[in-house]
């Protein structure tokens, strides 16, 4: 996170300037490619690529509602899988991005088609595809490409690749412009970035695993959440409720911190052993110095110092929430107790598949409210009021009636 009030001092694994350039002419996008991407990518982008039209919902500006549109998708090339999208989860990141709340880090290029929690059925495969055939279930998360050659990619940590391509609002190496996400009836993705969905999982509930699932599973695995550990989950939204399910399945003692007293019973049902109403300072004090690990999944400004105080010696709090404004951290909270504060973005391809398989074994899916795409703007308003139990999942069949 950058210093409060200072200029953006983020170190990004990708080029801010490049994304910005995409908001202007296509020609300029290609010039940017020339200076920032391998020549082979540029050549591909310059050739006329066979495309088809897909239906989608897009936002035209930071203040517009999402509305029906058509977008271009490339015809599947040799390594590509074409997927008919059945369900797409609504992540709070979609809302941040559509409203350009991350303009300092990832400015939004309009029109923006969000959506990175995608589950569907394969409709067509390229000639080099080996993992999928038409009719298979398939899933796509937050990334659709990376360079595959860097140290991070070699280790299966594509989420840290400096040349990865996010599923939406990222330079599209094939068609120019930016990538378009899952609020659409189809998508075309290199099979390497397509996941297998365990057949026992409910599809509407499986979609959110592709972001909310992996984003909470990955740091819990990294920080050794297991039996005997005391784990806190802050914010019982889409990410938070998945965090509770995973921490419980991994055998930890789970405490949910919520600002919404009406979520108490749900928290217990989802796997929490205790629930703390975070606005009650007495309840908070009782938990002081007792946590091995806390996952902070809050989407808005909040006092993280109150949670740092709850960590035991060498405890860690990991931020997965990405609020618009920088958080303020008191140094002494970290110094005393040698506590650490870290962040974690999504997860790599092998771990995403591992998480899906773990969900298959433990029969874990998100608790979803299935909505037609026509209700997505209302869903955004409700997200802002923390009024979702616990993930909206868009049924893309609704797009056919547009
Ligand atoms: N790190 C990553 O790779 C990654 C991936 C996906 C999403 N994210 C980010 O993670 C955050 C959460 O996403 P989500 O989809 O889970 O959002 P969400 O469903 O809207 O949940 C956020 C939860 O935060 C709590 N909250 C909201 N406003 C608050 C406030 N002012 N003070 C304290 N608590 C508040 C609420 O929980 P209670 O009602 O229980 O208090 C709310 O349900 C977003 O910022 C999103 O962009 C990051
Ligand atoms: Zn997300
Ligand atoms: Zn890489």
Your description of this structure?
- By secondary structure, this protein is α/β, with parallel strands linked by helices.
- The protein is 27% helix and 24% strand.
- It has helices at 16-22, 26-36, 39-46, 92-98, 151-154, 203-206, 212-222, 238-249, 264-270, 281-285, 305-308, 331-335, 349-362, 376-384; strands at 51-59, 66-74, 80-90, 118-125, 137-140, 143-145, 165-166, 186-190, 230-234, 253-258, 274-277, 291-296, 311-319, 340-343, 368-372, 391-395.
- The strands form four sheets. Strands 3, 4, 5, 8, 15 and 16 form a six-stranded mixed β-sheet that branches. Strands 11-10-9-12-13-14 form a six-stranded parallel β-sheet, covered by helices on one side.
- It is globular and about 60 Å long.
- Bound molecules: NADP nicotinamide-adenine-dinucleotide phosphate (NAP) and zinc ion (2 copies).
- NADP nicotinamide-adenine-dinucleotide phosphate binds at residues 91-93, 96, 211-212, 215, 235-240, 258-260, 263, 297-300, 302, 320-323, 344-346, 383, 386, 388.
In short:
This protein is an alpha/beta fold and 402 residues long.
Structural topology:
Elements: H1 16-22, H2 26-36, H3 39-46, E1 51-59, E2 66-74, E3 80-90, H4 92-98, E4 118-125, E5 137-140, E6 143-145, H5 151-154, E7 165-166, E8 186-190, H6 203-206, H7 212-222, E9 230-234, H8 238-249, E10 253-258, H9 264-270, E11 274-277, H10 281-285, E12 291-296, H11 305-308, E13 311-319, H12 331-335, E14 340-343, H13 349-362, E15 368-372, H14 376-384, E16 391-395
Parallel strand pairs: 9-10, 9-12, 10-11, 12-13, 13-14, 15-16
Antiparallel strand pairs: 1-2, 3-4, 3-8, 3-16, 4-5, 6-7
Helix pairs in contact: 7-8, 7-13
The structure holds NADP nicotinamide-adenine-dinucleotide phosphate (NAP) and zinc ion (2 copies).
NADP nicotinamide-adenine-dinucleotide phosphate (NAP) binds at residues 91-93, 96, 211-212, 215, 235-240, 258-260, 263, 297-300, 302, 320-323, 344-346, 383, 386, 388.
């Amino acid at each position: 996170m950058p210093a409060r009030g200072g200029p953006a001092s983020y170190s990004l694994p990708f080029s801010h300037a490049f994304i910005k350039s995409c908001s202007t002419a296509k020609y300029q996008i290609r010039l940017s490619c020339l200076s920032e991407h391998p020549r082979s990518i540029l050549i591909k982008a310059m050739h006329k690529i066979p495309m088809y039209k897909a239906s989608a919902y897009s936002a035209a500006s930071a203040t517009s509602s999402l509305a029906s549109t058509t977008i271009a998708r490339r015809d599947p090339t040799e390594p590509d899988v074409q997927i008919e999208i059945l369900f797409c989860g609504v992540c709070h990141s979609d809302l941040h991005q559509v409203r350009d709340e991350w303009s300092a880090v990832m400015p939004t290029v309009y029109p923006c088609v969000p959506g990175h929690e995608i589950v569907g059925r394969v409709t067509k495969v390229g000639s080099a595809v080996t993992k999928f055939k038409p009719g298979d279930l398939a899933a796509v998360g937050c990334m659709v490409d990376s360079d595959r050659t860097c140290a991070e990619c070699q280790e299966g940590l594509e989420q840290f690749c400096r040349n990865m391509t996010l599923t939406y609002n990222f330079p599209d190496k094939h068609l120019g412009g930016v990538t378009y996400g899952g609020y659409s009836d189809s998508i075309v993705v290199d099979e390497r970035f397509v996941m297998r969905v365990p057949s026992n999982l409910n599809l509407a509930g499986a979609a959110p695993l592709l972001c909310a699932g992996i984003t909470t599973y990955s740091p819990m695995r990294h920080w050794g959440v297991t039996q005997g550990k005391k784990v806190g989950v802050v914010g019982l939204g889409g990410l938070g409720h998945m965090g509770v399910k995973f921490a419980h399945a991994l055998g930890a003692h789970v405490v949910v911190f919520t600002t919404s007293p009406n979520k108490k019973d749900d928290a217990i049902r989802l796997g929490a052993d205790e629930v703390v109403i975070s606005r009650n300072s007495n309840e908070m004090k009782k938990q002081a110095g007792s946590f091995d690990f806390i996952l902070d999944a809050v989407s808005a400004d909040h006092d993280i110092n109150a949670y740092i105080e709850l960590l035991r010696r060498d405890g860690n709090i990991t931020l997965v929430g990405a609020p618009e404004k920088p958080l303020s951290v008191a140094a002494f909270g970290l110094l005393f107790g040698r506590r650490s504060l870290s962040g974690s973005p999504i997860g790599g391809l092998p771990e995403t598949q591992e998480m899906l398989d773990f969900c298959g074994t433990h029969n874990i899916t998100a608790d979803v409210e299935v909505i037609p795409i026509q209700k997505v703007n209302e869903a955004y308003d409700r997200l802002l009021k923390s009024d979702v139990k616990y993930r909206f999942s868009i049924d893309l069949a609704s797009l056919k009636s547009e």
